[in-house]
Amino acid sequence: MSKTNSGNFFEDFSLGQVIRHATPRSLSAADQALYTALYGSRFALQSSDEFARSLGLPRAPLDDLLAFHVVFGKTVPDISLNAVANLGYAAGVFGAPVYPGDTLTTVSEVIGLKENSNGKTGNVYVRSRGSNQKGETVLDYVRWVMVRKREPGAPAPVPHIPDLPERVALEDLIVPSSLNFSNFDLGLAGAPHRWDDYEAGERIDHVDAMTIEEAEHQLATRLYQNTAKVHFNLHEAKGGRFGKRIVYGGHVISLARALSFNGLGNAVKLLAINGGAHTAPSFAGDTIYAWSEVLEKWALPGRDDAGALRLRTLAVKGKPAGDFPDKAADGGRDPAVVLDLDYTVLLPRAG
Amino acid sequence: MSKTNSGNFFEDFSLGQVIRHATPRSLSAADQALYTALYGSRFALQSSDEFARSLGLPRAPLDDLLAFHVVFGKTVPDISLNAVANLGYAAGVFGAPVYPGDTLTTVSEVIGLKENSNGKTGNVYVRSRGSNQKGETVLDYVRWVMVRKREPGAPAPVPHIPDLPERVALEDLIVPSSLNFSNFDLGLAGAPHRWDDYEAGERIDHVDAMTIEEAEHQLATRLYQNTAKVHFNLHEAKGGRFGKRIVYGGHVISLARALSFNGLGNAVKLLAINGGAHTAPSFAGDTIYAWSEVLEKWALPGRDDAGALRLRTLAVKGKPAGDFPDKAADGGRDPAVVLDLDYTVLLPRAG
Amino acid sequence: MSKTNSGNFFEDFSLGQVIRHATPRSLSAADQALYTALYGSRFALQSSDEFARSLGLPRAPLDDLLAFHVVFGKTVPDISLNAVANLGYAAGVFGAPVYPGDTLTTVSEVIGLKENSNGKTGNVYVRSRGSNQKGETVLDYVRWVMVRKREPGAPAPVPHIPDLPERVALEDLIVPSSLNFSNFDLGLAGAPHRWDDYEAGERIDHVDAMTIEEAEHQLATRLYQNTAKVHFNLHEAKGGRFGKRIVYGGHVISLARALSFNGLGNAVKLLAINGGAHTAPSFAGDTIYAWSEVLEKWALPGRDDAGALRLRTLAVKGKPAGDFPDKAADGGRDPAVVLDLDYTVLLPRAG
Fold first, then answer.
1. Which of B186, B227, C165, C218 is most buried (most C-beta within 10 Å)?
2. Does the pLDDT value for residue C279 go beyond 70?
3. How far apart are CA C35 and CA C287, in angstroms?
4. Which of A106, A51, A52, A50 is nearest to A77 (CA)?
5. What ipTM is given for this predicted complex?
6. CA quadruple C244, C248, C249, C254: dihedral, nearest 10
């Protein structure tokens, strides 16, 4: 019998199934340095141990999205090796900050299954929990993917679509208990605007842009030990749908987040990923712009040092985002939009 | 007189000569993170401090091949700056594991010399020993290279070809004394097959593939402080034999090893490099596939937790390895094969 | 009002103005590993903790130019986001060595202003001081840039051009007090020539060369959190003057410095940057060669273990530097020269 992993097909999943994913990963300051080199991130909390200490943390935590990519990467060999498409995210809550020296592992539960009407694929919903060596949850999130069936005629499970929240509710957000923004130094952080300065409905063009290179997205995706072959195999991709390698969607999320510094520089901490869609593929050579919209503005119970914003950030390829590309003339999606991410961030408050 | 290093030519070497190589190199978790980003390695022992501790080590050691590349890199300015070809490896034994914080240096001894019949080049055999700051040997291996003569007419030394073993013998393998695979967690390691499950003669197609980018092999080769100019100078390469930069052969070794995870995921430790040939050059844009053959299967005296496999791994460019490309129709080498490596690995045993 | 940083224009600067720059940055061994991967630097002091300890330091310091790039990067959003050109450097003095764990910040003072006769731009002179978390100066230097005016007709300040030294004087150089070259191991360092072996007027062709890739200069520039958009945005660059991204000038400085190892391998420590000009832009695909000239040779008062050399290193693109390209036939600059850097280094002395 073959000793290689051919991944799970739709009929291999069952509701309630728990999958303990492989390859625990110890992270270090090196992963953060590589993350900085890959995206140019400038959020002060992750950039400076001194800044982190001034806010009550023992040292600079790793970027929240770096933790996301590592937790996600572990699930790929079991969940999405035979995926046709990554359909969505929901209910993503960031827990304990991840520090250099932490070792992350991921466990997933299958929480939904539904065969597609073509009988060739089905949608699999998994809730994945990434935890550190102390057993603390660092990230808990749901994603669903369209997975091929091994045999088109195989019997389908009873369909079950989980009930997913539109967004993580205020009361479910986790703000690290020691984190205190009372001494938040706006000058060092590099942005003058606090939580108080943003309004729901406000739109921000992040102005800057970044062009993706093949070596960059490959380095990033391997750093996360994400093994999805569409990102790495040009020889096979040449005969495929696009004729080239596809950039890992998470690479675009991190690019958009790094670009959002220009306009959201004090949004130093991610609290939740409420939803998101990779609306079109990105390729090496694409230049990514980004813009954001403030969806909701939440005070945090019992805290006057910090507040939360629910944001929607769109990544746009090949054109500036100054006119906030979103819908196309026909009411559909502007084809230049490659990412539509709904997430919640923490900012300092005037108090 | 010129202050630049023009390297040694064939007539500069003498039998028994000892060369203490330059540039000691301290390694850190950063080198391992870069290694992961360059190859996507997923072997659990090197990926996780916790996993390493569960097997008796103080923390995750650096990848054995990372140590190999650093030890090798040091020898380049003295041994192979004027090399025409890297002809082979033999008798490579891995010793003390390399940990973050260790500083490596390399010393070589010339153990063989033989002028080629054209009178323009000669083969130089060196035994190189890489050691850490405590003086412990981390790697001891032999390689031989074809080196240009400074003056074609110069007198040749008495030819001496060292006696080299076909492979490192079982009794010469070094298993770190504290390493114990009794608690080896197959689930976390990501592969179900133990030593017991492999048989001599078995062939494994590793399925996955990786396309090489110029930036990637340059970053890797510089990380190892390997200065061979064929890897870096496009301006000069344009006028050369291939018209482009050649990828460092060790980069292909590491790619093949990372790909071999799919089928050999529990082969977490290299014990020996028995031999190897870079049978054809690789270039940026090449997609590397790999397959392996189990050559020998050895129980280890006095141990029931672990066993050794002698493997042959071939890297193949530009086509899948499912039909195990090896010999061409004319009995020669299949031209798609770029690496044929003979090495010995350690795996957990059912006990 | 826009929440994004549009940078300062010429009329936003005033003489004596002090600007505290954003984004403190903690550095680690990872930054040095990435620096090694980007340039292949082989200077023993920065490569080996053991070598550094043999010279009296607690461990290997980070590369002086890595510190330079980080200190420089912080100034970009405030000083040169609207710059037309980076005109020069002067009076750069390296102070306390930078170690893994240090956090760097930068503060600048405007020390000169002069509108250009076209009324559309002006030159801004800033003195920037980078310091560590203990408040120690790690680098103090002057640079001047040509910056756009927001409104061409806006009133100009009284012109003031600061008095800048031709080079940092011997008495202003800072040699770390614990650094002692008495036990300098030439063999491990990889170069036989001490301070005593160089003469003013001597020229050295560094022979080696390195071809730049887009992914490499982008990774480097982001590592330094340098946000100048000309390095990252191909979409916009396509419509610009060169039709492609411009390589950060500091990337070329680091390449030239790494190449200079071959001929100046014992010049392990930078003491000063006396001046420098990026005389032509570099692009991905360019192959960089380098040569150096010894401008001055200084004994250090009270020390017989070490001496200083004032060097001029030129980076040349697309052709070897064996004929020391400098002036063109018409007396102007050879167009292949992309960098002309005047700096001071520390070497071991025969004593």
1. C218
2. yes
3. 18
4. A106
5. 0.97
6. -130
